[in-house]
Amino acid sequence: MAGFEQLKWSVAHDPCSARFRLPQGALPLGASVRIVLRVDENARQAVRKASLLTGEYDGRAQRLVWCEQSMDACGEGYSAVFEPTPNLHVAYYAFAIYTADDLLLYYVPRADGRATFGELVRPGTDGEWTEDGWRPASVSDGADASFGVPDALGGFQVTVFDPAFTTPDWFAGSVMYQAFPDRFARGRGGVREEGVHSHEALGRPVHLHASWDDPVEWDDVENPDGIAAYDPVDFHGGTLEGIAEKLSYLASLGVETLYLNPVFEARSNHRYDTADYLAIDPLLGTAEDFERLVDAAREQGISIMLDAVLSHTGNDSRYFDAADVYDEPGAAQGPSSRFYSWYDFTPTESGVPYRCWWGHPTLPEVNEHDPSWQSFMLGGHGQQGVLPHWLTRGARGYRLDVADELPDDVLELIRTCVKRTDPEAVVLGEVWEDATTKTSYGSPRTYAFGRSLDCVMNYPMRNALLGFALGSVDALQLATFLKLQQANYPAAMHRCLMNLLSSHDVERVRSVLALGRSLKDEDRAGQLRLTNAITPDQDRKGARLQRLVAALLYAIPGVPCLYYGDESGLQGGGDPFCRQTMPWGDASRAGRSDCGEDLTRFYQDLGQVRKGSPVLRAGQTAYAAPASDVLCVLRWDDRNGETVLAVANQDEADRPAVVDLAKLDVPLPCALSKTVMTEAVACPVLFDSEAKARPCAPTANLCDGIVHAQAPALSTVIFRIPAGGAQ
């Protein structure tokens, strides 16, 4: 295949470069995009024709439909203007190249994910063209990628979004803290005994731990469907008053957004089985306690985000009332209940006489299209609505639990309701995959197009960052992943992505990094056995890697989220071991086996640096990988001239990092991209993840538009590039 060998290194397209695609990034609805395929001049005689292949989803056919468009010859090679269909969606494109010796070749995204530019491939040898686009021969086919980057898509991506899409400025770039209310802090008043009595009066079991530092209960039981589970009714007595008493501590971490797992009345300690949407769980406090918490948080510059569980309720809720304990009939009492139409009483294959969430009989699913449910939740027909109710009492937004289970049109209604009540409130969705390309129940979802969610939980970034720390993702792959997130998400959403390393649903970051592996495939006994066996040396290594990825996380655009207890070095596998109590003070830590090296002071320093730096909160971004184990993140702000460079080295040896700013292929400030200096200007350290362990600070300098920096082993260092230093 002489034609292929001749063209392999002579054809190029990079969707993240303005030389190849303009405009850059996600595309406003109604706009078109110019796409260039570069062909080196000395290889053009080998190309007979080039075509742009565009794929868009056809709802009736329920698949991508590809069209072929001839490209015009131009100075760079070939170009075409693509006009996506006028609706909110994701389109894909690739290139077909017909050679002079009658070969058909394709130019598609790289299968190894190590660059944003693509690669020339041969059908039959390197993969095949399918209705989903290019399928490389090396596709993972579902292999475990717990800590990695997503497989390459079948084509380059164009996200079409609503040009009116905006997100709250106060939230973008802020530092978030997630707290599990039962396990964060008891107030000075201790356990709320009235809450215990209230639950017991409704026939609910309450196993109250005598000591705050008791381990969580977890013994597996079999539910009626044979699903291994545990009954989460052990409580440690955390309260809203306890959270309020720790607000100054949260402020010391630079926190501006406090996300609380559910606080509404429920049977379980996690409260994702809502019993009453209009009542604070009495074990946590009262509505007045909530309002006092909101007011006290506001004085500290902290906004409260609540968890809204809308796709299902608890079966012992006042709406379903399986045990018939409420004064008003619930849906389980029959059609006479005003809540009956909320639920679907069609028996399931497992024998449960109603539709329930993932087969759990304790979590009956609701019909979100039911008019009475919508009025109750969103308002209307004389009702204020649950979501407006808590916004008017001071909440600044909602995290929507299992957003996949909420229909797109209902998500749009939720957004309209929230924004009508408070235009600055945030609507954040629990989405585990890339929100721009997410498909569920057979259809593409519309999360990222500007009419439903403001942002999502960025689990793909968690997987990529932990993969980098553990060596399963190299710096080139991580840089590519970060560039593509920036290119594929609308800017309004990208700046608000909830970037996390731990949560209530996954293993704690310290344990993952100490053990060097995921725990998700272990049963609960296996997870506990592994985390209990972590040695001091493993914990020290895990703590160092945690500092590396945390500093990198805080240098990246979006909303960095600190999960409660990660700063204290808590170990733990998945649910419920990631939901243990917060250790307060040395005495608490001394009596526990789940506390590793304390990083509280580290996170306080890091949080204050992030909070106090406009460029880290909202600056523009470019990524580079000068070595396979070194990632560089350049942030700059044209408004004030502030520029920083974060250098992360995953290797156990020191590395040099050389970044030619002019080659980053982004519109840099003139002071950085064009220099006439002959002497180097020193770049002082803004933050060093290993500052306390070094006798002297790492160095970096800028000369003639090139940064020469030290990249110390297993560290992230953020250098400040002096304003005007490159003049």
Automatic annotation (TrEMBL):
A Pfam family the protein falls into: Alpha-amylase
GO BP: any one term: carbohydrate metabolic process
InterPro entries: GH (IPR017853), GH13_cat_dom (IPR006047), O16G_dom_2 (IPR045857)
Single GO term (MF): hydrolase activity, acting on glycosyl bonds
Keywords attached to this entry: Glycosidase, Hydrolase
SUPFAM superfamilies, alphabetized: (Trans)glycosidases
Gene3D superfamilies: Glycosidases, Oligo-1,6-glucosidase, Domain 2
This protein's record includes keyword Hydrolase: yes
Boundaries of every Glycosyl hydrolase family 13 catalytic domain copy: 178-610
Record protein name field: Glycosidase
Organism: Slackia heliotrinireducens (strain ATCC 29202 / DSM 20476 / NCTC 11029 / RHS 1) (Peptococcus heliotrinreducens)
